[in-house]
Design goal:
alpha/beta; single chain; five-stranded parallel beta sheet; 895 residues; 30 helices
Length: 895
């Protein structure tokens, strides 16, 4: 028999409306329907007597989603099905997401009947379930009151809808303040580490048809962590599937805490290495933990039930020990003392004993607990430490070096040996009272250096420093101080320990020895320098003589000039080599690309090493930049290449290789000038004769050479060593006789993003000028060259041979002179600095450029240049002179 169904159809097509009703009749429904097209008609027709709404998706005035929204706003509990002539996943998803019972395409209306049937069944099921729940709630009201009185909350979970119903006690237990009708609202309260246990218990109850039981933790909104016990049962529908889960929740936090406390106490007692024993008031053993078995040798079976005194008390004083037990039982106090105890084998054991009362729930003392800690090894260690300390004090008192130990921040001196009093002239007690007196005693000229180096090196494991101290009587002493870091198991620095030695006498002997070596080295140096300069002077003299002859054409004249320039350059290089060796050559640091530098030097080296030597370069790509003096680094490579060439008299191969990597901690510790971070490295290797092992330690010593007299000065490798050290780098050598030698050099790299600043070497575009310059130079061969170059570039030049002559010129031409170009050291007692100071007092705007053969003339004569001064070091090319003059006149900063 067909079922009568009251239908509201929202459709603008009469044909589609008829087709829809036909589909319902074919599905066995007798439809009583009315059709509307507009929103107002639709709202008027949404009455309680309809059982189903079928709406088209696209309508002239509004659409199916709007119809669904108005339907949901009315709160109607009947099916709502959308049909459309255009299929699409997005409209269907939107409809179902907004609460439609189903979504059908008009050309598939055969599905309408089953969809309506299913939707009606679901609505009926929801109504029946709601009615049943309401009835159940009424019938369970008394049960809920009883559960609340017992501190238990009742809950119900509808599995199909996910809705949760909580009693008021559930809110009290969970701390929730708002009603959350979904299961996930409760699950969010479950502690994350316990969720899988909770979920597993739920699944067992639903699938295995067993009672639901679970104990887990919840996190209340106020942050409290509480234990709850959940118990319940599942109810099943006619199809055998679970419909709901009903149960109770109980706060079991206090019970859990008591259990955990008990378990912890049991675990502590069982795992303790100390003997933990309990007795009754008569001293009979009730419990005996594994620690007691280890300490005394009795098993628990042997000990329990026996008098404690007969087991472990010393035979000489059992009554005294029993008296202590009696006192604790009566007073209720806790007693702690050291005592001798007896083991099963009769041997004695030193123990730290703690005796405490055991009370029942009323506070009455019902037993005694005893904890005995075996301190035998500690006592033996203390004795050994006392003996060791006595021996150490005797040893330290007889040693002249100062042993010391301090906290990492030097806020406290932990130990200093008696030698401190003899060397520093101060008492050890004064140092303990004021740890800063150690650094206060350092010579003022050395203090900043020492503190900075100690700070920088100490974190890497220690430092090695030499400095002076000033004793209270004003006497100075040289100290060699070495420190190491004392580290813990995790590698952290716990304290700093070191040894300080008075090296004053040693340094005096070394100075005397060096003076003797210098006197011996004069002959070696004179021969080598004379040989090199004689060759250079011969080349200059010969080419000058050729240029004076009338038989040379222009090309030959130019060639002679070039030879003179090259010879002068070699002489300047030899002078620079001597100055670098003596630390009298100032650096001109700039950002350098090691690969570019090597590439340029290799071109020159090919002419230096000769045709029988092969020169190979292996350059690593993308090297970071480093900071250095271009000429100095070129000098290092030249010296190493010449050294390699001389080691291969029959020819061979020189290999120059570059690389980059992180500077290792070992390198930082071994070379004081090395710093942590990225580094650039270069190696120069040859396959020559090699260096004898006995000579390797001395290869960087000045004047040391294995060459014949007159063949070298012994300055090449010493100069290379000095240059590398000036650049905060380090150089090492490896060699084997008959197989060759390799020099390795490391420099700290600059940070990423540093760039190379290119400087033009061309004189074609040098800036011109018109200002008046006063040139003060006493060198008769140099002054005319300076004057000629400056006049060639447009300047008006006034020249003076001395400071006094310059003052005479100034009196006449002071108004027009814009720049003073002066040598630092001149005859007649007026230095360049003194001259400049006098002239600038009369004309503060006067520009000044100082020049000298080497920068050590400043410190040697006690002269210091004003900050930001222009200084031009001899020898210099004409373009450098012109560029410096222009930069000074234009007010730019010196390089």
């Amino acid at each position: 028999m067909a079922r009568t169904l009251r239908v509201l159809l929202v459709e603008d097509s009469p044909v589609d409306a008829e087709l829809t009703m036909m589909a319902l009749e074919q599905a066995g429904f007798q439809a009583v329907w009315r059709c509307v097209e507009t929103e107002s008609e639709y709202l008027a027709s949404l009455t309680e007597d309809i059982e189903l709404v079928i709406s088209d998706y696209f309508l002239p005035g509004f659409d199916g989603l709007r119809a669904l929204e108005l339907f949901k706003a009315r709160g109607m509990e009947i099916p709502f099905i959308i049909v459309t002539g255009v299929a699409g996943e997005e409209p269907a998803a939107a409809a179902m997401r907004n609460g439609a019972s189903d979504f059908l395409v008009k050309d598939r209306l055969a599905r309408l009947g089953p969809a309506v049937t299913q939707a009606l069944q679901q609505c009926q099921l929801r109504r029946e379930r709601t009615e049943a729940i309401m009835a159940l709630r009424k019938s369970d009201e008394r049960l809920k009151l009883a559960l609340a009185a017992a501190g238990m909350g009742a809950w119900e979970w509808e599995i199909q809808t996910g809705r949760m119903f909580w009693s008021a006690e559930c809110y009290s237990i969970t701390g929730a303040t708002d009603f959350n009708e979904r299961l996930e609202g409760f699950e969010r309260l479950v502690y994350k580490e316990d969720r899988r246990f909770h979920d597993a218990a739920v699944q067992r109850a639903l699938v295995g048809r067993v009672p639901y039981r679970a104990e887990f933790r919840i996190v209340r909104p106020d942050g409290q962590l509480r234990w709850v016990s959940n118990m319940g049962r599942a109810e099943y529908g006619p199809d055998g599937r679970p419909v709901r889960l009903v149960g109770t929740v109980h706060d079991i936090t206090e019970r859990k805490r008591a259990e955990e406390t008990r378990e912890r106490l049991v675990a502590i007692v069982e795992s303790s290495s100390d003997a933990i024993v309990s007795t009754n008031l008569a001293g009979v053993v009730l419990t005996w933990n594994p620690g007691a078995e280890r300490v005394f040798g009795y098993t628990s079976t042997e000990a329990i039930g026996q008098p404690i005194g007969a087991l472990v008390f010393p035979a000489s004083r059992p009554s005294d020990e029993m008296e202590i037990l009696s006192q604790v039982a009566h007073s209720g106090d806790i007693v702690r003392f050291e005592a001798m105890r007896r083991k099963k084998d009769g041997s004695a054991v030193d123990a730290m004993v703690t005796i405490a009362p055991i009370r029942d729930g009323t506070g009455r003392v019902v037993g005694i607990s005893q904890v005995a800690q075996d301190i035998t090894e500690r006592k033996q260690g203390e004795q050994a430490l006392r003996e060791s300390d006595e021996r150490f004090q005797q040893l330290a008192g007889g040693i002249h070096e100062v042993f010391w130990m301090a906290t990492v921040d030097w806020g406290k001196i932990l130990y200093v040996s008696p030698a401190y009093e003899q060397i520093w002239g101060r008492s050890c007690e004064s140092l303990y009272a004021n740890p800063r007196s150690w650094t206060d005693a350092i010579h003022p000229d050395d203090r900043a250096r020492v503190l900075e180096e100690a700070r920088a090196r100490q974190v890497l494991g220690g430092y090695d420093i030499e400095y002076r101290i000033v004793r209270p009587n004003g006497e100075s002493k040289w100290i060699h101080d070495r420190a190491v870091a004392v580290r813990g198991a995790d590698g952290s620095i716990l304290r700093i320990a070191g040894v300080a030695e008075d090296i004053s006498a040693r340094l005096t002997l070394e100075a005397q020895f060096r003076q003797a070596q210098k006197m011996e080295a004069i002959g070696q140096l004179a021969g080598g320098i004379a040989h090199d300069f004689n060759n250079i002077l011969t080349a200059i003299h010969a080419n000058a003589a050729l240029m004076m002859s009338a038989n040379l054409n222009a090309a030959e004249q130019a060639e002679c000039v070039q030879q003179v320039i090259q010879a002068a350059g070699r002489a300047a290089g030899l002078t620079r080599q001597l100055l670098i060796f003596g630390r009298k050559q100032s650096m001109n640091p700039q950002n350098l690309d090691l690969n570019e530098l090597v590439g340029n030097v290799v071109k020159m080296l090919r002419r230096v090493v000769g045709e029988d030597v092969s020169l190979v370069s292996c350059l690593a790509p993308k090297l970071p930049l480093f900071q250095g003096d271009l000429g100095m680094i070129e000098q290092v490579l030249l010296n190493l290449a010449v050294n390699s060439r001389d080691a291969m008299p029959g020819g061979g191969t020189i290999t120059i290789e570059t690389s980059t990597r992180a500077i290792t901690i070992e390198e930082v510790r071994q070379y004081p000038q090395a710093t942590p971070g990225q580094g650039v490295f270069i190696s120069v290797a040859d396959d020559g004769t090699g260096i004898a092992p006995e000579h390797l330690p001395r290869v960087f010593e000045p004047f040391f050479t294995t060459k014949e007299v007159g063949k070298g000065t012994g300055l090449g490798l010493a100069t290379a060593y000095g240059i590398v050290k000036q650049h905060r780098g380090w150089i090492t050598v490896k060699s084997e006789l008959g197989k060759g030698t390799t020099f390795h050099i490391g420099f700290p790299a600059l940070a990423a993003g540093s760039v190379v600043v290119k400087k033009s070497e061309s004189t074609d575009a040098l800036p011109m000028g018109s200002e008046t310059i006063l040139v003060v130079e006493d060198e008769i061969y140099l002054r005319p060259v300076i004057v000629t170059v400056l006049r060639r570039y447009g300047y008006k030049v006034l020249e003076a041979v001395s400071g006094q002559a310059a003052l005479d010129i100034w009196r006449t031409h002071s108004a027009e002179i814009r720049l003073l170009f002066t040598d630092l050291v001149m005859p007649q007692g007026i230095s360049g600095v003194t001259l400049a100071e006098q002239l600038k007092r009369e004309n503060p705007g006067l520009k000044v450029i100082y020049t000298s053969g080497y920068s050590a003339e400043l410190s040697a004569r006690g002269v210091s240049l004003p900050a930001g001064s222009f200084f031009l070091q001899k020898p210099y090319p004409p373009q450098k002179l012109v560029e410096t003059v222009r930069a000074c006149l234009d007010g730019r900063s010196p390089d």
